[in-house]
Amino acid sequence: MKLISSFILCFIFILSSFNISYSYNFSNQYKAKLKNNLKHNILLSQLYNQEKLYKTDSLINNKNESMNNNQINKDIYTTEKIYVNDIIIKGNKFISSDIIKDNLRIKPGELVNIDEIKDNIRLIYDMGYFSDISLDFEQVAQNKVNIILIVIENPLISKVEFRGNKILSSLDLIELINTRPGKILNYNILKQDIEIINEEYNKKGYIGIANHVEDLEVTKDGKIIFFIKEALYPTKIEIKGNTLFKDKDLLKLVTIKLYEPLTKEELEKSLKNIYDFYQDNGYLLADIRSNIEGDKIILEIYEAVLENIEVEGNTKTKKYVIEKHFNLEKGKVINVYKLRRGLRKLQLGGLFKNADIDFKGGSKPGNVIMIVKVEEQQTGQLVVGAGFGGLPGSNRGGIAGNISLSQLNYKGKGQQVFLNWERGNLINSLSFSFSDPYSLKNDYFYSFSTYFTELFKQRAIISNNPLTIGLYKDYRSSISFSFGRRLISKDITYSFSVGSSTFKVSPTPDQDFPAIVNPSKGAYLFSGFNLSRDTRDDEFYPTKGILYSFDVSSFFKSSGNLDSFSKLSFEYRRYFNLKNDRVFATRAFIGIATDKIPFVYQYTLGGSDTLRGYDFNRFIGSKAFLLNLEYRFPVSKKIENLYGAAFIDVGGAFLPNESINLSKLGFDYGVGIRFVVPQFGSIRIDYAISNEKTKLAIGLGQMF
Questions:
Q1: What is the dihedral of CA 531, 537, 542, 546, to 10 degrees?
Q2: Residue 508 burial (10 A CB sphere; 0-12, 13-18, 19+)
Q3: Residue 429 has pLDDT above 60, yes or no
Q4: Residue 415 lies in a domain
Q5: Co-location of 194 and 314 in the same domain
């Protein structure tokens, strides 16, 4: 009798991709050691590779002394079919012959060939109870044989032992599996048990291990030993692909502990921390992947680098106009704040009815192509209107009408043209402006404007101690040109302006305000410079970031009875995101001018945009200070687009040659609501209380 090997020891574990979220990718290979196979001493690799090598000549072992071996071999090889007289099972002790025969397809009385016999032997192997099977024939007559199957059964299980386990006890593991002492060893059940053990460790979150049953041994005396590798114990963590932040800063966000079991929960938490860190700092990530190499964890970051911008839906508007709304640089990581701010400008800027963005993968991992989808609308308008304004001291109080002609997208280049005439009880004004923010190369821009205005019954503060107010007629005209550039990589914009202006002030006292305003007139040539930086996440409804602006201007007298003067001002805004749509917004402003400044050019405070508890232009002077603090919050989760606000305003202005007295600053506080209208903006209503009065202030958009 000749025996053949039951198994080929060549099983290889491969875990090529294991995704949790945020694109985890584990790609380790675990190879089972090749060992010589001994009967009843199997390895884990044997259970997963039951391919059998069958050679016809090795299956034949003739023990019939009355027959000629060569003749039998020749009959089997040369006869297409042989007749099966009987099937005889030998060597079985625990598994009955009838059960074995029930698993065979061939039956006594059938004609079979050698390939069919081999296939049926495989069926017996597949029962899982046998470690070896040999084949013999007994000649009964010409082309008629008894098939003899000699089986070697697996042993009875004497003991089940686990090695290498610490997290789960041996008692925990034995309760999971179906392989138990006193039963005959079954390879099929054993494979199921391995899968059960793997599933239990994976369910508890121990990842990074291809197979938690690292090896398996069955001894001759029936003892089964499971070699367990419960978890990965990382010894090192590396971060790759990051360009914006240092490794040490990102490693602080990783909650995985070295030399302790790695869990799915800790890995997910670490990757989410990094993802949120990028988001909170205003940058977009394309992917985060975790790879395991031995005991080392590699966190691979794919920062979302803008490869290109594609535009869909534009028929009139030039592509560069849409691109420049975002101020994004190709080849650089996408700034979330700029992305959001640019989209809002597209949605609310008047050029498009609808605007949205989408992304697709670029030419290599991490690269993204941004797709801007727009729906154009009519951008030219002729508006005829009339209304009534009642703000004390406002140049638009009383009844007024206006006619305006505007084009927001001249020739599809984003150039803006405005012509407006307004006439009312207190105003007569004609203005024209042209601006080109997009068509010049290298992010340069320019604008031109001119106006002629007459204002009637305007209020001027003649003295603060006591408060004395006089009325006057204000005539002004101006023409100006500005030129500037956006430094996209630094979020900075600067511009220079030059022009000329004239004014004339004539007193118009009445019974309520008999004080006389000093008449004055003058003509000036002026120049100015503005520098600003804007990192806000949204220009219309900011929730985080800063905006600061520095302005300096000089007016040089060309005629009139007044002197030359200069102005310097600085404004700083900062927004704190308190989560859950709650924002704490702050604004500080300080302005200083030389004492020779005419009062019509002085700083003014008061009204719905500065000090909400005071009349329009209540404070005027060559020195001004303003501080606004506002807490913004959603009114209810059930009511969208409705927000509340609580605020404090502090500020004041001091006339030329008047010393600064903090006790004379204005102070108000109050509450308000904000109605957000999609594709339009927001309407704000504030109720403010000051030491002088209570006021209801109404405005469009956030105050700052």
A1: -40
A2: middle
A3: yes
A4: no
A5: no
- Asked if 522 and 621 sit in the same domain, the reply is yes
Q: For residue 582, give the DSSP letter.
A: -
- Here the tokens at position 480 are 């100006």
Give the pLDDT of residue 81.
85
Give the global pTM.
0.70
Report how far residue 384's alpha carbon sits from residue 351's, in angstroms, rounded to the nearest whole number: 21
Element (H or E) spanning 557, and its range? Answer: strand 545-560
3-state SS, residue 375 = strand
Q: Please indicate, yes or no, whether residues 139 and 216 belong to a single structural domain of this protein.
A: no
Q: What is the spatial distance between Cα 233 and Cα 335, in angstroms, rounded to a whole number?
A: 36
Separation between Cα atoms, residue 525 and residue 157, nearest integer Å: 104
Residue 404 amino acid letter = S
Residue in 628, 596, 584, 590 with CA at minimum distance from that of residue 520: 596
Distance between CA atoms of 179 and 185, rounded to whole angstroms? Answer: 7
- Cα separation, 458 vs 397, in Å, equals 10
| Domain assignment of residue 586, yes or no | yes
- The pLDDT score that the predictor gives to residue 76 is 54
- Residue 160 lies in domain: 12-50+155-228
Report yes or no on 382 lying in a domain: no
What whole-number percentage of the chain has pLDDT above 70? 87
Task: Give per-residue pLDDT as tens, 205-216.
Answer: 999 898 999 999
What pLDDT, on the 0 to 100 scale, is given for residue 428?
93
Residue (of 521, 548, 305, 315) closest to 409 by Cα position: 315
Q: How far is CA 679 from the centre of its chain?
A: 24
Instruction: Specify the CATH number for the domain of residue 652.
Output: 2.40.160.50
DSSP code at position 88: E
At 38 the pLDDT is: 29
Confidence of residue 311 (pLDDT cuts 50, 70, 90): very high
Q: Quote the percentage of the chain above a pLDDT of 90.
A: 63
What is the distance of C-alpha 170 from the center of its chain? 44
d(CA 270, CA 261): 15
Confidence class for position 301, pLDDT limits 50, 70, 90: very high
Q: 103 phi and psi, to 5 degrees?
A: -90, -5
Cα distance between residue 292 and residue 231, in whole Å: 12
Instruction: Note if the bond before 466 is cis, omega within 30 degrees.
Output: yes
Query: Kind and range of the H or E element at 323?
Result: helix 319-324
Question: How is residue 550 written in tokens?
Answer: 């520095």
In the chain, what are the helix, strand and coil shares in percent, each to the nearest 5? 15, 50, 35
What's the token pair of residue 152? Answer: 């070697």
Give the N- to C-terminal CA distance of the chain in Å, as an integer. 96
The structural domain count of the chain equals 5
418 domain-assigned? no
Cβ pair 216, 33 in contact under 8 A:
no
Among the listed residues 702, 695, 633, the one whose alpha carbon sits nearest the alpha carbon of residue 669? 695
Say whether pLDDT at 399 is over 90.
no
Residue-wise pLDDT tens digits, 506-517: 999 998 889 888
More confident residue, 41 or 253: 253
Question: Can the peptide bond before residue 108 be classed as cis, meaning omega within 30 degrees of 0?
Answer: no
Residues 6+ apart with CB under 8 A from 280: none
pLDDT band at 51 (very low <50, low <70, confident <90, very high): very low
Reported as a single tens digit per residue, the pLDDT across 102-151 is 999 999 999 998 889 999 999 999 999 998 999 998 998 888 899 999 99
- Using CA atoms, how far apart are residues 367 and 22, in angstroms rounded to an integer? 16
Strand order of the sheet with strand 352-361?
A: 305-312, 367-376, 352-361
Tell me, what amino acid is at 390? G
Residue 599 confidence (pLDDT): 85
The residues pairing with 585 across neighbouring beta strands, listed in sequence order, are 575, 630
What CATH number is associated with residue 126? 3.10.20.310
Q: Is 129 helix (H, G, I), strand (E, B) or coil?
A: coil
pLDDT per residue over 642-669, tens digit each? 999 999 999 999 988 888 888 889 999 9
